[in-house]
Amino acid sequence: MVNPWLAMETGADPVERTRTVRRAHAAFLADGTVAPPVRQVVADSWRRSAEAHAAADGAAPIELDEATLSAYRDGHPLARAMPVFRELLGSFAQDGAHLLAVCDPQGRLLWVEGHRGVRRSAERMNFVVGARWDERHAGTNAPGTALAADHAVQIFATEHYNRQVQRWSCAAAPLHDPRTGRLLGAVDLTGGDHVASPHSLALVQATARAAQAHLASGVPELGVCLSALGRDEALLVMDGERLRLGRRHSEIMMLLARHPEGLTGDQLSVLLYGEREMRPVTLRAELSRLRQLVGALLHSRPYRLSRPVETDLDAVEEALAAGEVRSALNAYRGPLLPLSEAPGVQRLRGALADAMRSALLGARDPGLLREWSRTSWGEDDLEIWEALVDALPERSPARSAPMATAHRLRAAYGLTSGDLGAVGAPAAARVATFAQPPRL
To answer: Where in this chain does the record put each GAF domain (predicted)?
Structure first.
């Protein structure tokens, strides 16, 4: 069976593949259709890129300036893994044909290393530290698509969504926190057509595994962690083992994690189903299926978790309570279980979004406000855009773009210049959906 994550099988003609995929790319941009030989992973990425209005030409945006970048990456967990990356990929990064890059979960490049001439060539498309290379901002590319799919992947030449990147090929693998399972970023090898060979994908996968093993060294106890921000299906990690939960089980686990004292069947039913009349056997059946997955972690009478469960929601709340708005924003991967209609989850989701927005508005930091405004859940948040305008110096040319967006949103919401108040409500109430990684 052909590996769908490999760009080309052994013996394939890169020139012919470049030509045929270029035609398919042009057809997709023209009418949205995707035809062979475009791989499914690439077709899915092209569609996500188009839906996010990623540019088919142009350079990726630079989001982190030199001062912000230095402090941010010094404190980033992947800083500890850089010796591993350099040891395993360093020779490639200095051979005059490749670049080694490491990004964070948002796709922002934290390290880009390699021969000076190759780096200079890559600078023309803003493949530089501080630039954002997720699919939303740079279209289909190996680090961005690896983050979106949560899987190692190669992207060959014309498979890139952005034409400026189509002279390059790349292979990248996602990186996870060995204790919590949360996405930390991705490691990438970028170069010419030769990067599309099978061994380069195997190499970045092996490097990612080695880096995660290095990060796990010295961790005395892995514990139990639940990640549900920006995910329709939560990720449960127990003692290093990763388990993808279904939507109802994700809701149950999040609610029980937030109520360590336990919940009766009636209490849990109200949080899950609201005032709808549900037969008790329905909830018991869901809990029975969940117990088959998590074993002794789930207890009953009352329903509770037998061990403390750390959630990514907790991490954001703790950062906000400590006044660390930057840390909170970095940990906020999106709304909590965005498609969930369970009343208990909806309340948690709304409270966290409100707390994040309040902290951002109170901090009045242009960088933080701009970062929130560039997300799918913040792009229509008028109050954030107006706060960004106010936070920038009055004569700064950087004010013009956010000011234009604020005027556009104000008109779209039917507001006049005197209408203030709950202008952020449309964005706060918005339900965002996210590309889900493949089942484990």
So the answer is: 116-211
